[in-house]
Amino acid sequence: MSSTDIAARYNAVPYPRFIFYQTHPNRLATVGYLLGMDVADITQCRVLELGCASGANLLPMAAQLPQSEFVGIDLAAVQIAEGQRMIEALGLENVRLLEMNLLDFPEEMGQFDYIIAHGLFSWVPLEVQQAILALCKRHLAPHGIAYISYNTYPGWHVTDSIRDLMRFHTRNIDDPIAKTDAALEVVQWAQTVLSDEHNHAFGALLDVFQHQLADQLHRIQSRDASSLLHDELSDFNQPYYFYEFMQMATAHGLQYLAESHFAAVMPSDLSPETIVELNHLAGRDLIRREQYMDYLRNRRFRQTLLVHDDVTLQRSISPEKLRRLFITTKAEPLYGSDPHRLPTHFTTPRGLKFDVENAATAAALVALHASAPIALSVGELLAAVRNVLGLETIPLDAVNVLLVDLLHLFSIHEEFITLRVWRPTLPVEPPSPAQVWSVARLFAEGDDFTVNLWHERIGLTPLAKRLLPYLDGQHDHAALIEVMRGWLEGGQLSIEEPHPSDERIVYLLSKEIDKVLEWLMANALLLPAE
User: Fold this and answer.
1) What's this model's pTM, rounded to 2 decimal places?
2) CA Rg value for the chain
3) Which helix (H) or strand (E) holds 289?
C-alpha cells in the first residue's frame, strides 16, 4: 500500500478524535527529569507530532502552553483541514498542522524538544519505521525526548490470531464501513463459540489462551469502527519484541530512557524471589531485563521514550528530586467506623487498593485527595500534612521517609501518585460566572467526551454536555437557571416532583447547576476566576 493509498483510506474514514495524556510533554519531561536529564521547560519548548490526524492530541497542548511551538504532520488532507478549522475556532497562533509525508520532512524545520509518534510505528512499512527513527535522530534537540508507541510480542500473538481472522473474513470487502461491520460480526461469532462450554473444536491448547482471547475479543468489540479499520484491519500491523525495537533504535543513535507509563518499567508486581531471579538472568542489561518482564507480563503494547545515545542518565532516582515536582493522587481514603481516625487503606477509580503504614504518608494522601485535581508542591504538601496531623513541624527524617514512600507509590501505579514538572492553574471553588476552557467546549460539540486541563479524556454527563456551551464566563448562576427553565418549558428537561412551585423549580435547578459545576471542577475542566 502506497502513501497515496494510506491517505485515501484516512480521508475516506478519518481517525477518531483521541487524546493521549501519556504523550504530553509534562509526562515526558517528568520521566526525563527523574532519570537525570536536563529537560526542556515545557512552557517554552518545541513539540512535533508525527501522524497527528486532526490534531486532537496536539491542540489542547498548544492551548495550555501558549509560549511553546507545536507542529503536527499527517498524510490525510481531510484530517488536516478539520484540524485547521479547530485552530481557527480556538484562535491558536502557536500550532501548525501540515499535510505531509514524514519521508519528506524538511531539514529546515529544525530541532524539537519533544517528538510524538503515537499509533504510527507498527502501522507503517519497515522503510517508514526506519525513517521515523532517523527523523527522531536528526530533529531531536540534544536533550530532547521522543515518544514512540508500538505493538509488542509476546502479548500481540493472541491478538494476531484475531486480526488474521478478521482480515480473512473481510478479504473480499472493499467498502470500509461494510468491512468493519463484517469484522465485528465474525468477532462476535468467535466469542460465542469460545463461550460455549460444549464446543471442543479448538482442542486443549486453545484452552490455555481462551481467557486472553475472550478479553481481546471484548476489547475489539468495544472499539470505534474507524479505529478498528485503521488498526486491526490495517494492511500494516507489525509488532516487535522490545529488544528488536531497541536494536533498531540503537542503530539510529538513540538509547532507551523509559516507558511513558513509568510504573510499567518497575517490577513492583513481581515477588521478591522473582526479582532476584530476574536480576540473575538479566544482569546489568536493562533491555534484557525488560524483555524478560515483557514475557512474564505477556505485554502487547509499549510507549517507549528515546533520547540521544550520548545523553548521560541516572537510573538511581533520589527522593529529593520530588522537591521540584508537583504531586497528585487519584486515591481515595477508606475511613473505618471512626471518621476522625487517620485512614491507612486507600482505593482508586480502577478499584486498586493499597495500604500505608507511615502516618505522614497517610496524611499526605488525605491532603492530596482533598486538594484534587489541584497538584501540590512538596512544600505545600508538607504544610497540609502538618495540618492533618496537628503538628507544628515535621522532623527531617520523617520528611525523608515520606518522600521515599511517595516515590515508591509512583513506581507502583500512577493512580496512587502522579508526579509532574508543571501544573495548570485550577480553581479551589467554582467561580461565577463559571468558565470551562475553550478546548473542552469545542471538543464536546461533537462528542460525549472532552479533554481536561491535565490532558485527560473525560466522559461527559448528559447535563454537563448540555450546559457546556453556556459555561463561557458570560453566564452567571441566574443566567444558567434561565437557560434550564427554557429547557423545562420546551420539554427538553423534566423535574420528577409533581407540580413544583416556581420557587421550588429555581431551587432544584440551582442545585443541579451546583452539582455540575462541582463535577466539572473535580475533573479539572473549570478555569479560575479572572
Assistant:
1) 0.89
2) 25
3) helix 286-297
pLDDT per residue as tens digits for the range 246-256: 999 999 999 99
Helix H, strand E, coil C: the string for 27-83 is HHHHHHHHCCCCCCCHHHCEEEEECCCCCCCCHHHHHHCCCCEEEEEECCHHHHHHH
Q: Where are the beta strands (DSSP E) in 309-451?
A: 326-328, 332-334, 345-347, 353-355, 376-377, 418-420, 449-451
Give all domains of the chain, ordered by start, each with its CATH number.
3-154+239-263+300-308 (3.40.50.150), 166-222 (no CATH), 319-420 (no CATH), 438-522 (no CATH)
Nearest C-alpha neighbor of 55 from the set 30, 33, 82: 82
> Are the C-beta atoms of residues 251 and 306 closer than 8 Å to each other?
no
Does the bond joining 142 to the residue before it have cis omega, within 30 degrees of 0? no
Look at strands 140-151 and 112-117 and give their pairing: parallel
Q: What is the dihedral of CA 271, 420, 530, 473, to 10 degrees?
A: -50
Element (H, E) at 234: none
Phi, psi of 402 (to 5 degrees): -60, -45
Contact residues for 242 (Cβ-Cβ < 8 A; gap 6+): 152, 287, 290, 291, 294, 299, 302, 304
Q: What is the pLDDT of residues 346-397, one digit of tens each?
A: 999 999 999 999 999 999 999 999 999 999 999 999 999 999 999 999 999 9
